[in-house]
């Protein structure tokens, strides 16, 4: 047990009690609670932004990197998008009790599978306070209880949003303890959460590799331990190069601090001399540092000198093709053919988001079929690997392990199913 004031076992016990109560809460009450959350986010935006400003001030003073500060930052637009995502979730069909398949045997016995909540979901997350609301909304819609433990760097923001979430759902008759927030930054609670197998049915870490790997090693309950994105875009020799430049630029620069941002560009040797200078010029305009293999550097050195971008061109180090940069850095490699690109992705990828740019339909289809990743893209940016973009409303994580979910985890991905058998005196012969 920890020596601080919060008793996690008591929280777990209460979560288990509430998970049984939620089964009785009608769908209209859960949906009303979600709409109340969205309204509360809008009406209390100033309070939330004030709490976030305090977190941002402390983060800057501590020397937090700009990419992590971007994950932490809330703005009026981001807060409004968050409220809208809650409304989107509330607008979905109720998944609880949904019959996912059904059959009637010759003897009249009806056998169904019905979708059910997992029960209690624990979430340990870093930096991103929007996760507090995303997780709350997805758990409520799916009938799950949430226990949330955010990072110390976003504590004020998380606490402000957890407080308004609990108040909003209680106003609609949903138990406030359906969403529980660990109101303490003591790191011992993280370790203790990993031992609460009796109360937590699934644990989800959202953060850097250190957190994810620690949960994978120490969690006593099932855990989703993916989400680290080393994302590639392969530019084929049959690519439309203008499309490729736009796709690479978007995947790298649109929001570089997130897991579906591009990390490595692979370029077919046949188009390297034509494509690389144009790609580099586009990225250098936004101060993206390129770390290339010897062939890439040879092609780009003249362009770097002429555009005074030599400081943004470096030789790739031994770890650069295995790095999730989460910032304005991209690795680049020239490959001799399509199969070499696939081999590189297999050896260096993290099963997150992988893209091909090509007008060759056969190669595109091979890429989509053969590349093992939670989401594969043809002629589009990896930045689309997102629960909201996929129509899920939001996500609790992007899973890169295949059991039990692969890719963005929305409402249905944090649910299970049970068999329902209905007869009329049927007995087995």
Number of domains: 2
Specify the CATH homologous superfamily of the largest domain.
Answer: Aldehyde Dehydrogenase, Chain A, domain 1
Taken in chain order, the helices and strands follow as HHHHHEEEHEHEHEHEHEHEHEEHEHEEEE
- How many beta-strand runs? 16
Average predicted local confidence, pLDDT: 95
Residue share in β-strands: 15-25%
What top-tier CATH class of the largest domain fits best? Alpha Beta
Helix content: 40-55%
What kind of assembly state do the chains in view correspond to? Answer: single chain
- What would the CATH topology of the largest domain be? Aldehyde Dehydrogenase, Chain A, domain 1
Radius of gyration: 24 Å
Largest sheet: 7 strands, parallel
Backbone shape:
globular
* Largest beta sheet: strand ordering: 10-9-11-8-7-12-13
First-last Cα distance: 53 Å
What count of helical segments does DSSP give?
14
Low-confidence stretches: none
């Amino acid at each position: 047990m920890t020596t601080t004031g919060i008793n996690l076992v008591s929280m777990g016990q209460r979560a288990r009690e509430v998970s049984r109560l939620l089964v009785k809460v009608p769908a209209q009450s859960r949906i009303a609670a979600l709409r109340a959350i969205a309204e509360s986010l809008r009406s209390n935006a100033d309070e939330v932004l004030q709490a976030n400003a305090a977190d941002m001030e402390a983060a800057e003073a501590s020397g937090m990197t700009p990419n992590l500060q971007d994950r932490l930052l809330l703005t009026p637009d981001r807060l409004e998008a968050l409220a809208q995502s809650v409304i989107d979730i509330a607008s979905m069909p109720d998944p609880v009790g949904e019959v996912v398949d059904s059959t009637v045997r010759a003897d009249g016995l009806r056998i169904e599978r019905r979708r059910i909540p997992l029960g209690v979901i624990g979430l340990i997350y870093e930096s991103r306070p929007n996760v507090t609301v995303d997780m709350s909304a997805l758990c409520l819609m799916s009938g799950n209880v949430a226990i949330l433990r955010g990072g110390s760097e976003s504590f004020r923001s998380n606490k402000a949003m957890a407080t308004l979430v609990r108040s909003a759902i209680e106003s609609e008759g949903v138990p406030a303890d359906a969403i529980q927030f660990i109101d303490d930054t003591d790191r011992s609670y993280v370790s203790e959460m990993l031992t609460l197998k009796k109360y937590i049915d699934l644990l989800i870490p959202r953060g850097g590799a250190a957190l994810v790997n620690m949960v994978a090693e120490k969690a006593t309950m099932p855990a989703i331990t993916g989400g680290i994105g080393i994302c590639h875009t392969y530019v084929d020799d049959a690519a439309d190069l203008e499309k490729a430049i736009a796709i690479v630029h978007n995947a790298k620069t649109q929001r570089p601090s997130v897991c579906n941002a591009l990390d490595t560009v692979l370029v077919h040797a046949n188009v390297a001399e034509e494509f690389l200078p144009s790609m580099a010029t586009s990225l250098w305009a936004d101060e993206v540092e390129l770390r290339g293999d010897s062939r890439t550097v040879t092609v780009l050195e003249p362009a770097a000198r002429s555009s005074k971008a030599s400081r943004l061109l470096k030789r790739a180090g031994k770890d650069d093709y295995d790095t999730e940069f989460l910032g304005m850095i991209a690795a680049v490699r020239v490959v001799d053919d399509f199969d070499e690109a696939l081999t590189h992705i297999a050896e260096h990828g993290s099963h997150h988001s992988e893209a091909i740019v090509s007008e060759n339909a056969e190669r595109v289809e091979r890429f989509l079929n053969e590349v093992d990743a939670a989401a594969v893209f043809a002629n589009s940016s990896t930045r689309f690997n997102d629960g909201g973009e996929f129509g899920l409303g939001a996500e609790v994580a992007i899973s890169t392990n295949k059991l039990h979910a692969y890719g963005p985890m929305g409402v249905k991905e944090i649910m299970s199913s049970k068999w329902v058998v209905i007869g009329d005196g049927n007995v087995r012969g």
